[in-house]
Amino acid sequence: MSEINILGVSVSIRIVIPVIFLVWVTVLFFVKKIFFTVIKKIAKKTKTRIDDIFVQSADFPLTLLILASGGAIVERLIPIATNNELTTYFIVGFKAIAVIAIVLFFDKFLNAIINSYSGKVEILKASGGGSSGDLSVLSLSVLAS
C-alpha cells in the first residue's frame, strides 16, 4: 500500500484519506451551523415566509453537498503519485450528488411555496394540492433523466 510523507513521517494513504475527509466535513458543518443560525435569526425578523422556506429547503441538500465535497477534496489533495485507485470515482459521485441536491432543494422549496401560498392564490385553492404532487413528479422525472 502506498504511503505519503507528512512532516517527515510516512503515513498510510488509508489513514490520510479518512482524516482529510473528516476534518473537511467537520469544518464545513461548523460553518453551516453558524451561517444557518445567523440566517434563521434574520429570516424570523422579516414579514414574508419565503426566506424561512428557503432556509428550511436548503438544509438537507447542503448537507449532501458537504458530504460529497469531502470526497472531492480528498481526490484533489491526494497527490497523483500515490495509489489513485482509492479516489477514482469521488468526482463522479460528487457531480451525481450535486444534481440530486439541486433537484431536492427545488422540489422542497417549490412545494413549500405552493403549500404556504395555496390559501392566498385562487388557482392553487382550486387545484386542491394537486400542483404540489405534480411538482414532485416533475422533480423526480428530471432526476431520472
What does this structure look like?
It contains 5 helices and 2 strands, in the order ββααααα. The chain is mainly alpha-helical and 145 residues long. The chain has one domain (3-144). The mean pLDDT is 76.
Task: Please sum up the structure shown.
The protein has 145 residues and is mostly helical.
Mean pLDDT: 76
Order of helices and strands: EEHHHHH
Strand portion: 5-15%
Strand order of the largest sheet: 1-2
How many angstroms does the end-to-end distance come to? Answer: 39 Å
Low-confidence stretches: none
Query: Using DSSP, what is the number of strands?
Result: 2
* Share of helical residues: over 70%
Instruction: Please give the largest β-sheet.
Output: 2 strands, antiparallel
List keywords for this structure.
mainly alpha; 145 residues
Fold topology:
Layout: E1 3-6, E2 9-12, H1 13-45, H2 50-77, H3 90-117, H4 122-127, H5 130-144
Antiparallel strand pairs: 1-2
Helix pairs in contact: 1-2, 2-3, 3-5
